[in-house]
Design a protein that fits this description.
The complex is a heterodimer of chains A (447) and B (543). Chain A is built from ten helices and 19 strands. With 447 residues, chain A is an alpha+beta fold. In chain A, the strands form four sheets. In chain A, strands 3-2-1-4-5-6 form a six-stranded antiparallel sheet. A five-stranded mixed β-barrel of chain A has the order 7-12-13-15-19. In chain A, strands 10-9-8-11 form a four-stranded antiparallel sheet, with no helix packed on it. In chain A, strand 13 and strand 14 form a beta hairpin. The longest helix of chain A is centred in the first third of the chain and has 17 residues. Chain B is an alpha+beta fold and 543 residues long. In chain B, strand 21 and strand 22 form a beta hairpin. Classes of the chains: A alpha+beta (447), B alpha+beta (543). At the A-B interface, strand 1, strand 2, strand 3, helix 2 and helix 4 of A face strand 1, helix 2, strand 3, strand 4 and helix 4 of B.
């Protein structure tokens, strides 16, 4: 049994803590029940289910800490894992950055569990594969894809009396459909907490249409172009920006958010908190209560999490930080929820409207193999993939060959022309965006 | 696993365990417990094989694994974390109705194993209704009961934790007292104790060891900050890799020190501090075409991305289309026997038998004895990397022995072997000799950013250290360098190779592939090599 009820989890963790002889003890219980199916060359290649329940115990003596985990749950095993963590703690050197366990927290209600998703079984997964394979075969296309569903349980308890519990469900799907001659390729991805929102037939059709539509792509000169980035194209660049918003690196001078003092400036700040860095339409926040991307309302250490603004109207308003760094610098602690999300606000325009309103530009389905070139400017490189099209006078004119880009999300968020309606992608909310002067540095022959 | 996730993981306590890792933390002493008795493993494996056959499997294999890791993470003067993990269980793979099925369990009772084997057969039968190409296995020898062990001198798990932590703190101090502002250093130790049995009649017991000791240093100056990571390699060795023997050092005049089969981590950290200070003041590269001289600790990654991956047969055939992509090196190019992958001095080979390499094992994860074979011979594409169920698709009847699974709980599949570039067979040139021949070029050491398209044509690579070469000499450290090329053009511009004395083996500890994704460790050997007329970009950007 990998998913247990709140009552059972509380009883189990109380029993674990009763074995503790350490100054402080904290336990995390993680259960998962996941299933998947993978297909390629118009046939199912692998399918499976994984169940697991793991208990992690962290014991501390003063500034010494040890961690041990186990996946057996008889009384002897529970005592053993507590003793192991205590033994490791005694062996460990002092960690001056170690923080005491949290006091009990108040959590707001979580809405991360959908029975529909928890009930997904092999038939649903097989149908998802078939939704790509059968129509592809009819059109002489080659389908490949992957669907995975998960039902997870998390519980945290410590010797201060803190207790947190949550169950969550998720399902994600992606498909790559190629023409038999390899001249066209289309792709789609969808992910939801509630599987009732998942339409794998409709999604597969998008990949089919893009694969046929991308055949015989024309070459365009690399250079600076106005681009319409579908959410799947910008999520990678935005994610790297959000992940780089750590306070400690900024304070230590090792981040794009480190402040460079002007000559003779008295008491300069260490970081760019409160400073405007992006177009004023840019607002990014995390919110466990967002109905499309709900998450737990607690972090791994049991800290309560509520909505946190990161960027508001182009200004930096909060940093990610650890409890230690927040205390050291007198800042507010901004914990990240388990399964944490980020949401970028947008407008009401649809992708189709955006294309209609573009005189000349490139529509990008997704970006691939994104790697950072310079952490000071967040300059990234990578390539377009699986559907890149030239837009002229409001219409898609023809497919174009893939480009390599060298661009920074900082530049991207300063060159915004329009933002569309955000959609869920990889557990985050991202609007389609039209951006001017996006830098493509070379062409790729890859399809 | 991306490096970013790895760094997060190694710095984490309980909260960090929310990351999806497999493995249970155990005490230091327990990591040294003796592996399960071989006779017991044989008995349990036979339970799996017999149960699978009893419900209709035409083939079955069982992998009983105990996977141990230890990582120690430090930052400046602080030991952040000491983590021990253990994961044990059995993975059972079968063929029924011509279709693969797989199931695994951590409960190692005969009943549980038999049930898991039958579940694998049931999955194979259920999936067989979608089957269009029945599985066809290449024959393999029955090896009987055999064993193999990584030839280590010092078992890294047996070195006391304090000694290892103190060594990392010494590394940090060396970097900080020579110019670094911050540093994170890590020991990552792996021991895979795996037992393989199949209905072909092999019972193979292996004890595999790997080690990686990276550091990530940075320096903050008035104009910004710079980073420098370690130049050592992840290896299939014990703690003796960190002996830093004199005879294993290669001195590049005016530039870095290269490391053969042992690594002086403290010395490298000292140099990193000094080089960081130079990086802060170095001039920015002028973009244009240059002759590049690539150090093995850099070129290994270019080989990995532009040769290792495109020559994996499952990518060529489309099995990875929805994730990592396909390959430009299509079957028609191989069949033509004329496809010029590189210039005629380029000889690339695959193997899982190279001493000290990450991929070195006696047998792969489907019981095939490992070997060496050519991929590109005198510049021409001649072969791929393929497993037992794939080789018939390239008209061969012997597996290449490159099947691997990251743990007992995941299904094994085709993974990259060690893929290496042969040194100059005619002259034993040194790295300095190769640099001597260049009038206007750039010498690049260490791995930096890397990006390549989904069919492996267009790539862009950075590095750790860049030096301007003028009239055969290294003149100055420069910055902001990345080169962009096309795989075939790049390898055809290969103009000179250093000799066997300069040949060094580098590697990647976390190579990701598959859905659900699995990691694998793989090495690449090569000498210092020259490539002519390559497009170099300047990566400095104003934001």
């Amino acid at each position: 049994m990998s998913i247990i009820t709140e009552k059972e989890a509380k009883k189990l963790l109380k029993k674990v803590l009763a074995f503790s002889k350490a100054d402080e003890c904290e336990c995390n219980l993680n259960g998962q029940l996941t299933g998947n199916i993978r297909y390629a060359r118009n046939t199912v290649t692998t399918a499976g289910e994984v169940t697991d329940l793991t208990l992690a115990v962290q014991s501390t003596f003063g500034k010494k800490m040890g961690v041990a985990t186990i996946n057996e749950f008889d009384d002897a095993s529970l005592e053993k894992v507590v003793r192991r963590s205590e033994e490791l703690a005694r062996l460990a050197p002092d960690n001056p950055e170690m923080m005491p366990n949290l006091k009990p927290q108040k959590y707001s209600k979580m809405a991360t569990y959908f029975e529909s998703t928890a009930n997904v079984g092999p038939e649903f997964r097989a149908k998802a594969a078939d939704d790509g394979i059968t129509p592809s075969k009819k059109k002489n296309l080659v389908a490949s894809g992957f669907l995975t569903d998960s039902h997870t349980m998390t519980a945290v308890m410590n010797t201060n009396g803190l207790f947190a519990y949550n169950v969550a469900t998720n399902v994600s799907f992606s498909a790559t459909i190629r023409t038999a001659d390899g001249k066209g390729s289309g792709w789609v991805t969808r992910d939801y907490s509630d599987v009732n929102k998942m339409d794998t037939a409709k999604a597969s059709k998008i990949a089919i249409d893009k694969s046929i539509g991308s055949v015989d792509a024309k070459e365009m000169e690399p250079g600076k172009y106005t681009v319409i980035l579908e959410p799947a194209a910008s999520v990678g660049l935005l994610g790297r920006l959000v992940n780089a918003m750590g306070q400690r690196a900024a304070d230590e001078g090792r981040s794009f958010l480190s402040y460079k003092p002007k000559e003779g400036e008295k008491n300069p700040p260490k970081n760019k908190l409160g400073m405007k860095m992006f177009d004023e339409r840019v607002s990014i926040y995390s919110d466990p209560h967002h109905p499309e991307v709900p998450t737990a309302t607690f972090a791994g250490d049991g800290a309560a999490v509520e909505r946190t603004e990161w960027i508001q109207n182009g200004k930096i308003v909060n940093f990610q930080n650890s409890r230690y760094w927040a205390q050291k610098t007198g800042s507010k602690y901004n914990p990240t929820a388990i399964g944490g999300n980020w949401i970028m606000e947008g407008g009401n325009e649809s992708l189709e409207d955006m294309i209609k309103n573009t005189r000349r530009g490139i529509l990008v389905t997704r970006l691939w193999y994104i790697r950072q070139l310079d952490p000071q400017t967040l300059l990234q490189t990578g390539l377009t993939r699986d559907g890149t099209f030239y837009i002229e006078n409001g219409k898609i004119k023809y497919p174009v060959k893939n480009f390599r880009f060298n661009e920074s999300p900082i530049v991207m968020l300063n060159n915004i022309e329009a933002l569309g309606k955000p959609v869920r992608i990889n557990g985050n909310m991202v609007p389609p965006m039209k951006v001017r002067d996006f830098t493509f540095s070379s062409l790729s022959d890859a399809v | 696993m991306e490096r970013r996730d790895f760094i997060k993981l190694t710095g984490a306590g309980v909260g960090g365990l929310m990351l999806p890792i497999t493995g249970n933390m155990v005490s230091a002493a327990q990591l040294l417990e003796k592996p399960m008795d071989v006779a017991m493993k044989k008995q349990l494996a036979d339970v799996a094989l017999n149960a699978a056959k009893s419900v209709g499997a035409t083939y079955a294999d069982a992998r009983i694994g105990r996977y141990l890791n230890q990582f120690i993470t430090t930052r400046e003067k602080v030991v952040n974390n000491v983590v021990n993990t253990e994961s044990a269980g059995i993975g059972i793979r079968v063929i029924a109705n011509g279709t693969w099925g797989f199931a695994s369990t951590s409960i190692m009772t005969p009943d549980s194993i038999a049930k898991t084997a039958k579940q694998a057969v049931a999955i194979a039968k259920a999936n067989s209704k979608f089957q269009t190409e029945p599985v066809k296995l290449a024959p393999v020898k029955s090896y009987g009961e055999v064993s193999w062990k990584t030839p280590i001198v010092k078992n890294a798990f047996e070195i006391p934790i304090k000694e290892k932590a103190d060594m990392l703190l010494e590394v940090n101090n060396a970097a900080m007292s020579n110019g670094a502002s911050y540093i994170t250093s890590i020991f990552f130790l792996v021991n895979e104790q795996k037992y393989f049995a199949s209905t072909e009649g092999s019972y193979i017991d292996q004890d595999v060891h790997r080690l990686w000791a990276p550091f990530f240093a940075s320096a903050v100056g008035e104009s910004g900050f710079k980073q420098r990571t370690s130049l050592g390699n992840p290896v299939g060795m014990g703690f003796e890799y960190l002996d830093g023997k004199k005879e294993d050092k290669i001195y590049i005049d005016g530039a870095n020190i290269g490391y053969h089969n042992s690594y002086d981590m403290v010395e490298d950290a000292k140099n990193a501090g000094k080089q960081l200070q130079k990086k802060l003041k170095a001039k920015s590269v002028k973009p244009g075409k240059y002759d590049l001289v690539l150090d093995p600790a850099h070129l290994m990654l270019t080989i990995h991305e532009s040769v290792g991956h495109p020559l994996e047969l499952d990518r060529v055939l489309g099995y990875e289309a929805n994730f990592a992509g396909t390959s430009f090196a299509t079957l028609d190019k191989w069949k033509s026997k004329k496809f010029q992958y590189g210039s005629d001095i380029v000889n690339l080979f695959a193997d899982k038998t190279q001493l000290h390499s990450l991929g070195y094992v006696g047998y792969d994860d489907e019981g095939v004895k490992t070997k060496e074979w050519d991929l590109v011979k005198d510049g021409i594409l001649v072969n791929y990397q393929a497993t037992r169920d794939q080789v018939h698709m390239i008209d061969q009847n012997e597996s290449h022995g490159c099947c691997y699974s990251q743990s007992w709980r995941d299904v094994q599949f085709q993974r990259m072997s060690n893929v290496s570039l042969k040194p100059n067979p005619k002259e034993d040139l040194s790295a300095n000799d190769v640099i001597k021949g260049v009038d206007d070029g750039i010498y690049i050491a260490g791995r930096g950013s890397f990006s390549i398209d989904q069919q492996r044509y267009n790539f862009q690579f950075g590095g750790q250290l860049f030096y301007e070469i003028k009239n055969g000499k290294i003149v100055d450290q420069i910055e902001d360098v990345a080169y962009q090329s096309n795989t075939q053009e790049f390898w055809n511009s290969c103009a000179q190779l250093a000799g066997k004395s300069d040949y060094r083996v580098g590697g990647s500890f976390f190579d990701g592939k598959g859905q659900p994704s699995q990691v694998s460790a793989v090495s690449h050997g090569c000498p210092t090599t020259r490539f002519n007329n390559i497009n170099v970009l300047n990566t400095k950007r104003k934001v």
